[in-house]
Amino acid sequence: MTRDEFLHLVRDELDLPVADDETGTDFDQIVSWNSLHMLRLVAAVERETGHSVPVGRLLADRNLDSIYARITAA
């Protein structure tokens, strides 16, 4: 999954208008972010890639860059 594909999921599936330069921003600073967004993002990534995502590990991540790095490393 490319970074652009990942951001497309964030923007379209989660309906979050995250700019390219905001992906390193802590979730506490992103308007409207909550734990349900994480679950929806995981489901969307799994659906798009066909691979399971380690949800427990993602919970420690505090921004989208960290999540993307963990997803692409798996």
UniProtKB/TrEMBL annotation:
It holds the Pfam family PP-binding. Residues 6-71 form the Carrier domain. InterPro entries: ACP-like_sf, PP-bd_ACP. It comes from the Bacteria. This is Phosphopantetheine-binding protein. It comes from Streptomyces hazeniae.
